[in-house]
Amino acid sequence: MNNSSSTSPSSTLLSFENVSMTFDDGTKALDNVSFGINASEFVTVVGPSGCGKSTLLRIASNLEANTGGTCSIDRNSIGYVFQDATLMPWRTVARNVELIAELHKLPKAERHQLAAQAIELVGLSGFEDKYPRQLSGGMRMRASLARSLVMKPKVFLFDEPFGALDEITRERLNDELLRLFQHEGFAGLFITHSITEAVYMSTKVLVMSARPGKIIAEFDVPFAYPRNHDLRYEAEFGELCGKISHALRGAHQ
Amino acid sequence: MSAVNPISSPVDEVIPDRRDKFSFADYVGPVVVFLVFIGFWYLLSTVVLPEQKRFLLPTPHTVIKEGFFVWNSGERRGLQPILMSLWDSAKVALLGLGITIVMGMSLAVLMSSSRWLERATWPYLVAVQSAPVLALTPLIRALIDGTQTQRLLVVVLIAIFPIVSNTLFGLLSADKSQHELFTLQGASKWTRLVKLQFPAALPNIFVGLRISAGLAVIGAVVGDFYFRQGGVVGIGAQIDVYRNRLWGPELITAIILASTLGLVVFLFFGWVSRRAIGKWHIINRGH
Fold first, then answer.
1. Model pTM?
2. CB B195 within 8 A of CB B187
3. What class has domain B60-277?
4. Looking at residue B20, what is its pLDDT?
């Protein structure tokens, strides 16, 4: 195992305890959801569309307030990666990556330095002065990742970040993200529709039911990091995907 | 940082820059339209108008000869007095436009920050936009002293609506997820305005600016008609004199120059707009 880092693995960085969410219009999005994520754990939630997966992230980041239960997290150390890259079209890659540091009022020199490091880390060196409209979807997502990396958050929330990308780009970014995960040792909570992506990335996969969202199955992923992309074609991998798919089919009913 | 080697370069391609380059066709179009326009003018002034009314629209070459190429023939006739009054109106238009921009954008910022205020002011802005400002001139004269201030007020009343509406629309155009990004970092309202809403609004602001700039010129000319004093008068007042005395060539010359002022201001803001946002703003023509 390569993913052991200096952080004690037992420290829970994000925990949901009996979290429920009912929206103002009466829609029940989450029902008694409980799980925790430790440092150096990468947990992925799969589930049918509209089951409240994203709501989990919105609660964790305080964009929405849960109506029941408790969600504990250090709110000052969250990285949030949106479905789309949400870059500011009027800023260059470098200035986009600086944005969060800028909002935290870091001095200019430090900001520049952190941004340059993050840009290098996501493999965007040489593209600092490009505007988002000049980048492909995958590169925009890299820039978006770099922006979140700048403040070195302890917890990363990913809201289907690669859902709109083609498969090759998606797999490449999966590898990139895993590399960052091993390197930075953050705790990750990842939302996706793709079972393969979920298994490939995670230490643990949670399956959520249709609305109201409940955790109906939990799968530990036994593969060691670093993971090789050929892992996707191994029997054991396929078997696990099959089990999750089965659980998910139950979730759709 | 160690252990991790960033991959050398992403394979994904950088999207090539497809800016509109200088093209011959861009210049042929306006020239063709100009020629058609001149031809139509000749047709009107030599064929369509009955002979006894042709003094109303002298031919283009008469206008050039008697309007543009006479410097000063007294009684405010000639190019020099026209240019003097044009300059006088231009000052009013530009100062008025400046006031309009400051007032209009401030109002839009206030409206964008409060739904209540937006609702409360919107109908009255539309009313100002459609009110016949000319009919208000006696009231303006009664309430406000000084020709200059009266003229400026007319400019503001005529030009403010596009600035307010476009700025407001732009300020409210930032994506929800972009807003959430700022919310997650605990950004203040001011930070959000300066770093998100205002830059996002720039394309719309420039659209508003270009429309308002043209309207400011109209406002200045209209203001001249009604608020004038001795000495140098604005181009509107000058046009009024020529109109009353049926001095066709001078009248047309003054009208052309007033329109040219509007065109210059319009082009200027187009240029500023390209300088300011051309690098990032995407223009989709659908082909």
1. 0.82
2. yes
3. mainly alpha
4. 56
